[in-house]
């Protein structure tokens, strides 16, 4: 039987709009508009929208996993439980990465250990190849450990040999996270041949059209005299950029930003690309 709602019936079910901190300057880039007197003003959310399922995409070595791990440590250190599904790297390697992140961020690692739950799909063919089995395992972990955030690194690893099923798999995961009221980070790979400004750069049609929003990470190798003059970096350096490619849950900054991965392995967002270039040519 078809079901419908009067709009007012949804009021009590509608999620509140507030931010879930990521531990990066990205937290200032999502905002909502509020009216104060005769003016409308922007108010930063302080993180990605609560209960959003965000797609973090980019070519290899752009910082996607670094961002996901920084988010996990930030949330766990604040006392919120995180379910981390590792599809690419075995769980013991993830432990080392999270410990290093916690030390670099000055977080209490004993608290981080207590609040992060890991499902190792990297070393389990059943979980990696059978999405139903993975979802059942995630449901058990969420109920038992009462998590509020889920990270899957990477969602691409669940359909790497069967891209024809990508849309179906991403939809299943998206609906599951909504049903269990989890804020989600899905890491996805894009091919190096896909231009960063194209639709494919947002993870392709399979992901970008389903999730609530996409954050695109990119990198540019400084390889010409023109690049040196424009970006003020020496030949052979890498310029990393980040942009929010869309978010249907709230307003957001649409500029391309420059960021770096620090010596301690953290994402540090520096400035809008336009400001960065202007500062280099003065």
TrEMBL record:
The lineage of its organism: Archaea, Methanobacteriati, Methanobacteriota, Archaeoglobi, Archaeoglobales. This is KaiC domain-containing protein. It comes from Geoglobus acetivorans. Residues 31-282 form the KaiC domain. It holds the Pfam family ATPase. Gene3D superfamilies: P-loop containing nucleotide triphosphate hydrolases. InterPro entries: Circadian_clock_KaiC-rel (IPR051347), KaiC-like_dom (IPR014774), KaiC_containing (IPR022373), KaiC_dom (IPR010624), P-loop_NTPase (IPR027417).
């Amino acid at each position: 039987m078809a079901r419908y709602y009067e709009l007012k019936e949804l009021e009590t079910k509608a999620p509140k709009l507030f931010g879930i901190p990521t531990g990066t300057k990205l937290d200032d880039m999502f905002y909502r508009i509020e009216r104060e007197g005769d003016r409308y003003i922007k108010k930063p959310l302080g993180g990605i929208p609560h209960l959003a399922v965000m797609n973090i995409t980019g070519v290899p070595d752009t910082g996607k996993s670094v961002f996901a791990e920084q988010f996990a440590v930030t949330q766990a250190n604040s006392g919120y439980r995180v379910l981390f599904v590792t599809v690419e790297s075995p769980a013991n390697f993830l432990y080392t990465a999270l410990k290093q992140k916690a030390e670099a961020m000055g977080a209490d690692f004993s608290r981080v250990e207590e609040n992060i739950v890991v499902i190792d799909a990297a070393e389990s063919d059943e979980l990696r190849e059978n999405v139903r089995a993975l979802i059942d395992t995630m449901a058990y972990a969420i109920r038992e450990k009462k998590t509020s955030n889920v990270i899957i690194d990477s969602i691409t690893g669940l359909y790497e040999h069967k891209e024809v099923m990508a849309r179906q798999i991403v939809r299943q995961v998206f609906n599951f996270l909504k049903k269990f009221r989890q804020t989600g980070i899905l890491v996805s790979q894009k091919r190096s041949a896909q231009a960063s400004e194209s639709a494919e750069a947002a993870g392709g049609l399979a992901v970008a059209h389903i999730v609530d929003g996409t954050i695109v990470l990119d990198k540019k190798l400084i390889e010409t005299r023109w690049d040196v003059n424009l970006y003020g970096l020496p030949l052979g350096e890498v310029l990393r950029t980040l942009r929010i490619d869309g978010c249907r849950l709230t307003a957001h900054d649409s500029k391309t930003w420059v960021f770096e991965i620090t010596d301690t392995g953290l994402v540090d967002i520096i400035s809008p690309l336009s400001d960065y270039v202007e500062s280099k040519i003065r």
